[in-house]
Task: inverse folding
């Protein structure tokens, strides 16, 4: 083929090396191993550098995607990371857990050709490259303003607010209920998807910037928001959506029935998989059923598998409707998780010691689309099926914890317990109080929580410098 | 880090630990608890507040040395630190003017019911204290109770002090008191809570118990602490720990507390208690 002026389309999306399924299903180490510089450069070269890049409109924080990819193509990784960090302060995390296929990548023009540029993988590559270069340099910090901000919750929303405001010269303290910072990134998302060392690095960076990190502090119990407002000029609430839902079906309080939060917290935050070197026990079950079809359900299923169980995902609709990231569904399938679609548990039976031993389910069929646009599952009469199980993990959702609203005056709360806040500024109905992330939206994504943190930081800064 | 201010065994196998935790001490109320970790690798365990001093910034817990973590805590010496003391968690025991209240404590609950009894007295109630133990040598803090109670009554399994037998003798005790009791509050092990509630039901006296299911976060995040009270599932850490003892599903709670019995022995079998590598 003659060499043309126009760049030839390279439609081979570079795969990221992974641990093989039969190996990784026995360990908690990261599944995806990341691009080598060569692979990254090859993948970056596939980008068409569109003059009006559609990909950017798919990213909630509008990263200048073509620019950072171009920097990779030119092997100027330092420039690449600077471009990323203009908009995203947690690229190592977002590059790993963002639902890219529904956000930036789905908008990429090459999606029509079936081979979108692997934007997330490239983002991850740059962030990991930066980490290898040693401790990142600290950005310049504005002269002290004398203003103090309290951030409630050390998840992605809170970390972002803290990072932005400290650079603007304010004093920032994060109050976190658990003994470690990071929110869901630490207690929820497993090590094999997001190594905790990466989260620790981001937290350490904030510490170096001068953010005061207070763990073991439950706002609403140890101290109320109203009391914090006496000492701080502004408060940001990023307390997440940590209250687990159950289905209220018979047998749900049997031993062996867990909320996803309990199961994942035992493993991730408490490192139960290293028991007895770490002291929090986790059971090594034989037959586990995970109820739900989101990322949380996949994480539970793949964790239980790694602890040696045969695992079934029980989901009431079909594969098409599953809200989990496709990549995670595929990973779970490869690792040997069994999927029972169109299936709904209706009760659990226990043994004489109060341990779950059976799960009774009905099969479903799909009817008309419901409010969410997905086809509504309808039980099929007479389709009851019994599965023997020794554990059930309920991963059907979470909502914000009422602890803060119930101990704070004048904070408006929506129907699902979410704190009402202005979408553009994060301002709540209470003077000098902002909120963002899952606590306002209900369970969502890391990048949205980060984006909300950014906007709130901007609004808080504006308020503090004009008052 | 939280510094140990005092640490001692007050009666065989029951330990008192006073810790520097000013933020907790400032807000503490009777009936609340803290969650502690003894070392970086440690489990999070809940212990009730038996006393606190807002000015000194200290809190005191009393616990039965029953397993791995309580063993670690019992071994702490003054001046050592532990990485987690978080609280005060749970709702405070409702303190009102009920009239005459019987405060029943056993085991660690002798400690944790003391601030409750003290607050009830301060709120204008007549307080009777009933202490339960296997044998007389397991009682403690009696002078404290003497100071605030109309009377302090004892039950021991072996009859070495007061009534002989178990808390099943509650109806007799109440009868002997000779005054109508408006409310019973029980703190202690699950069996005491259950059997005390069973014994008071026929008397028709409102009975409140401080439940102690397994917990992790203590803030409503994990749901491991769920208990059935009446028809409802409640999270003991945020809806409790106090509940109406006549409404609690005791069988379920007793089962749920045993969930990790097998695993709880592992650290001992592997003699990790000697080489767990904690810095505390
Ligand atoms: C298992 C799992 C897997 C997920 N996978 C993905 C994924 O692949 N991709 C993705 O984009 N998103 C994923 N998510 C969602 C994502 O993690 C969340 O949307 C995001 O973490 C929300 O951030 P946040 O800062 O609002 O809250 P959180 O991360 O929930 O952090 C809130 C923090 O506030 C603390 N807190 C709560 N109450 C108080 C209080 N009263 N006082 C002090 N501190 C308090 C909590 O302990 C917590 O640390 C997943 C979630 C889960 C649970
Ligand atoms: C609100 C509350 C207040 C409590 N107050 C006191 C107190 O003041 N003094 C006291 O001695 N005990 C108290 N307990 C019980 C105490 O938490 C357990 O005895 C302790 O966790 C045992 O831990 P271990 O590692 O030493 O023993 P393990 O050998 O691990 O466990 C022994 C038994 O303790 C219970 N237990 C284990 N882990 C936990 C956990 N994470 N949370 C709760 N229970 C657990 C189980 O029933 C177990 O069978 C309280 C419990 C609750 C929920
Ligand atoms: S932050 Fe997420 S959505 Fe934005 S470019 Fe990166 S991977 Fe895509
Ligand atoms: S849309 Fe795709 S090809 Fe175009 S700039 Fe964005 S990533 Fe590159
Ligand atoms: S201890 Fe986790 S919800 Fe109560």
Result:
């Amino acid at each position: 083929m003659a060499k043309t002026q126009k760049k030839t389309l390279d439609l081979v999306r570079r795969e990221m090396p992974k641990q093989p399924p039969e190996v990784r299903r026995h360990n908690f180490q990261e599944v995806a191993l990341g691009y080598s510089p060569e692979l990254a450069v090859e993948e970056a070269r596939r980008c068409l550098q569109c003059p009006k890049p559609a990909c950017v409109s798919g990213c909630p924080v509008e990263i200048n995607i073509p620019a950072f990819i171009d920097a990779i193509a030119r092997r100027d990784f330092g420039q690449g990371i600077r471009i990323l960090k203009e908009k995203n302060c947690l690229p190592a995390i977002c590059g790993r857990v963002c639902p890219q296929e529904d956000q930036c990548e789905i908008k990429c023009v090459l999606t029509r050709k079936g081979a979108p540029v692997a934007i997330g993988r490239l983002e991850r590559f740059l962030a990991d490259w930066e980490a290898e270069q040693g401790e990142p340099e600290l950005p310049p910090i504005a002269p002290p303003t004398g203003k103090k901000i309290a951030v409630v919750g050390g998840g992605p929303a809170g970390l972002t607010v803290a990072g932005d405001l400290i650079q603007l010269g304010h004093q920032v303290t994060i109050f976190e209920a658990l003994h470690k910072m990071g929110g869901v990134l630490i207690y929820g998302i497993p090590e094999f998807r997001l190594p905790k060392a990466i989260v620790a690095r981001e937290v350490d960076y904030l510490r170096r910037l001068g953010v005061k990190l207070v763990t073991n502090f439950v706002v609403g119990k140890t101290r109320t928001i109203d009391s914090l407002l006496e000492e701080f000029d502004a408060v940001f609430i990023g307390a997440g959506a940590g209250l687990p839902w159950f289905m209220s079906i018979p047998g749900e309080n049997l031993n062996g029935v867990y909320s996803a939060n309990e199961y994942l917290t035992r493993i991730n935050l408490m490192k139960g998989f290293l028991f007895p070197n770490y002291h929090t026990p986790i059971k090594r079950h034989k037959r586990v059923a995970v109820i739900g079809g989101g990322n949380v359900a996949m994480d539970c299923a793949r964790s239980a598998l790694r602890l040696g169980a045969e695992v079934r995902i029980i989901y009431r609709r079909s594969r098409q409707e599953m809200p989990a990231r496709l990549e995670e569904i595929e990973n779970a399938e490869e690792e040997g998780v069994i999927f029972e679609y169109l299936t709904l548990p209706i009760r659990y039976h226990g043994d004489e010691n109060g341990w779950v031993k059976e799960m009774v389910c009905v099969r479903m069929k799909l009817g008309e689309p419901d409010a969410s646009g997905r086809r509504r599952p309808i039980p099929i009469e007479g389709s009851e099926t019994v599965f023997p199980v020794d554990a059930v993990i309920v991963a059907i959702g979470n909502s914000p914890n009422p602890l803060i609203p119930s101990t704070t005056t004048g904070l408006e709360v929506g129907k699902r317990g979410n704190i009402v806040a202005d979408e553009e500024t994060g301002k709540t109905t209470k003077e000098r109080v902002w909120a963002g992330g899952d606590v306002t939206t209900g369970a969502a994504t890391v990048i949205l929580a980060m984006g909300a943190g950014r906007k709130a930081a901007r609004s808080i800064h504006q308020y503090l410098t004009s008052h | 880090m939280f510094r140990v201010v005092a640490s001692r065994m007050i009666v065989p196998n029951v330990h008192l630990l006073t810790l520097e935790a000013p933020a907790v001490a400032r807000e503490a109320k009777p009936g609340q608890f803290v969650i502690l970790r003894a070392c970086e690798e440690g489990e999070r365990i809940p212990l009730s507040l038996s006393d606190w001093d807002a000015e000194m910034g200290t809190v005191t817990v009393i616990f039965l040395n029953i397993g791995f973590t309580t063993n670690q805590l019992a071994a702490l010496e003054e001046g050592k630190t532990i990485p987690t003391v978080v609280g005060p968690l749970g709702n405070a025991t409702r303190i009102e003017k009920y009239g005459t209240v019987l405060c029943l404590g056993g085991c660690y609950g002798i400690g944790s019911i003391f601030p409750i009894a003290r607050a009830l007295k301060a709120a204008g109630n007549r307080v009777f204290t009933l202490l339960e133990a296997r044998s007389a040598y397991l009682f403690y803090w009696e002078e404290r109770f003497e100071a605030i109670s109309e009377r302090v009554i004892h039950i021991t399994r072996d009859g070495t002090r007061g009534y002989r037998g178990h808390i099943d003798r509650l109806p007799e005790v109440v009868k002997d008191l000779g005054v109508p009791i408006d409310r019973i509050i029980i703190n202690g092990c699950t069996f005491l809570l259950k059997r005390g509630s069973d014994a008071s039901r026929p008397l028709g006296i409102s009975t409140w118990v401080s439940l102690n299911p397994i917990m992790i976060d203590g803030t409503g995040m994990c749901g491991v602490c769920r208990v059935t009270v009446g028809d409802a599932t409640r999270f003991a850490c945020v809806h409790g720990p106090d509940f109406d003892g006549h409404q609690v599903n005791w069988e379920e709670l007793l089962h749920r507390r045993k969930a990790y019995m097998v695993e709880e022995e592992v650290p001992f079998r592997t003699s990790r208690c000697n080489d767990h590598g904690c810095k505390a």
In short: Chain A touches chain B through 43 residues (CB under 8 Å). The two ends of chain A are 67 Å apart (CA to CA). The first helix of chain A runs from residue 21 to 24. Residues 1-5 of chain A have pLDDT under 50 and may be disordered.
